[in-house]
Amino acid sequence: MGAYGLQTHIWSNNTKTALLLAGFPVLLVLLTYGLFLLYAGLAGETLGKVGEIEGAFIWAADALARSWPYALVGAGLWFAIAYAFYQIIIDAATGARKVERKDEPRLYNLLENLCISRGMKTPALRVMETDALNAFATGLHEGQYSVTVTRGLMQTLNDEELEAVLAHELTHIRNRDVRLLVIAVVFVGIFSFIGEITFRGLTRGIVWGGGGSSRRRSNSGGGGGGGAIVVVLVALALIALSYALAIVIRFSLSRRREYLADAGAVELTKNPDALISALRKISGNPVVASAPSEVREMFIENPHADFAGLFATHPPMNKRIEALVRYGGGRDVTAPIAQDAPIAAKPGPWGTSR
């Protein structure tokens, strides 16, 4: 069921956060078994006594049975590390640095005024030193929230446009979007990292190793090359499955959150034209190439869309601007959008207000 009301959207985010955390051990067991099976298929001289294909699967299962408590302890440690240092991890990935009022008085004053209007505690401010135009918010709970903007955004947008972007990010905080995003990117996103490292390492081994494992399997007399290939292919399939499930996490990052954040920004600033203008400018140069793809899911604009938009977590910018024109009362002077009427018969992408 879609999240049509604001409170329903917040409940939906809280539910998705709990499901992501609960699914972490399941993904961990699947990935661990896949790695053991991959080892069983490649390390022929060590596993020569295992025998045929069934033996490799049995060995991997026994190894998993012996190691899963340690894997869960490792998961707990990663949770603790991610909870304590997620902001440091994100800052390291994006190159962001924390700034104070004396460093960026214009930016700080705009954010503080918005927070006073909203009745919120002012989040920390961070700046990425890049010419790209983008912004995002992070945080798990009150006292940890932070808003990050790029230098290019500050230099390109006027005060009204920058205020609209900051209001958009504050709405993400209010709607609990940032908690879900942090969980998806840092807590569970470790699977994407492990999957990429595994496949890159395997590819490098194939290219530079020249089939050394095959020779070892031949010398050890275990199981034959065909059986080992089957085992390796199944192991890679399991690792790919855990990697794919981690990518599916992106599906939980509903596109509706951006429409709701745009609506919240308009409700706070009473200036839809400023947000439309800001989004138009951002769309001209949004890509922060140095930021990992997982972190870019947190940005106000992420133009990357796999398979023609199937996996995109952000709605197209033109759709967002069209919604601001049709439902927010804004004007898009750059590319006017015809008003289709009547529109009252169906709810807009922001949902119905109750």
General description of the model:
With 354 residues, the protein is mostly helical. The chain has two domains: 6-87 and 187-252, no CATH class; 96-182 and 260-328, Zincin-like, CATH 3.30.2010. It is 63% helix and 5% strand. It is built from 13 helices and four strands. Strands 1-2-4-3 form a four-stranded mixed beta sheet. Strand 3 and strand 4 form a beta hairpin. The longest helix has 42 residues, at 53-94. It is elongated and about 70 Å long. The relative contact order is 0.14.
Low-confidence stretches: 206-224, 305-310, 336-348
Shape: elongated
In total, how many beta strands? 4
- Compute the number of structural domains: 2
CATH architecture of the largest domain: 2-Layer Sandwich
**What is the fold-level CATH name, i.e. the topology of the largest domain?**
Zincin-like
- Helix fraction, binned, reads 55-70%
Strand % is 5-15%
Number of continuous helical runs: 13
Q: What sequence of helices (H) and strands (E) makes up the elements?
A: HHEHEEEHHHHHHHHHH
Supply the CATH superfamily name of the largest domain: Metalloproteases ("zincins"), catalytic domain
Distance between the termini: 17 Å
Structural class: mainly alpha
Query: How would you state the average pLDDT, rounded?
Result: 77
Rg estimate, integer Å: 24 Å
Task: Explain the layout of strands and helices.
Layout: H1 6-42, H2 53-94, E1 96-99, H3 105-118, E2 124-128, E3 135-138, E4 146-150, H4 151-156, H5 159-174, H6 177-187, H7 190-209, H8 212-220, H9 224-248, H10 256-269, H11 272-284, H12 293-296, H13 317-328
Parallel strand pairs: 2-4
Antiparallel strand pairs: 1-2, 3-4
